[in-house]
Amino acid sequence: MAYVSKRGATISGIEPRTGETHMAKLIAGNWKMNGSVESSRALAGGLAEKVKATPGLADVAICPPGPLMRDVLTAVAGSPIGVGGQDCHWNEAGAHTGDTSAALLADIGCAYAIVGHSERRADHGETSEQVKAKAEAVLSAGLVAIVCVGETEAERDTGQTETVVGRQIDGSLPDGGTPKTVVIAYEPVWAIGTGRTPSLEEIAAVHAFIRARAQESYDLGEGLRLLYGGSVKPGNAAEILAVEGVDGALVGGASLTVEDFWGIIESCP
Ligand code: PGA
Asked: Phi, psi at residue 30, to the nearest 5°?
């Protein structure tokens, strides 16, 4: 059964499809601060054509920069692609220059919002406490929150991955979340945009840790969608997406061309 957001945006496959025992993977593209009106229309439109021609490989979402949102929503209309914000404020409205509320994202037809991306945590000093408040605003707006966590290289090298990620999980997840409304993306900071990835065993181990911790702290492990992010490309997507406990991918660089992003979608087992 599809989940329908408050404003009517349909998010298919959040529950296992009829007759299937496993949940569809979620492949979410994070365009970051890239694209123009022209390129975004071509990219979103090209992707929508592919998804319509070969539906059901995965649930697909794209998260463009705010000013391109309307063009992207128009380009994907009539396709099952969900659109998401890359961030939002924790308040519904008010004097917050430069920010966008989750309520407004919902109002224009978004289905998702990413919160707590490491680039926001680093560039804007976002704390887990703020990320949690944002995630709760996302839920209040009727959207699905994609909450990002991940350790830096120095933290990994000093054996602190579980301590750091555990603290982020405890601090950043929204109260009252369910597997239908919360997705966690594990994104090791050192793997983002670097072409480097953890080994498949390391990904499996951190995902298992995150699922157990989300269960322990928020009763939110079972059925939770847990994405891996960080240098996912068409060439490594199949093996990463086949790792136990990996329910999809959050993709940066490789979401910027139809060919690469579609190559990842097609790699879903
Ligand atoms: P990347 O980015 O795929 O370019 O490594 C992933 C992300 O930051 O979400």
From this structure: -110, 105
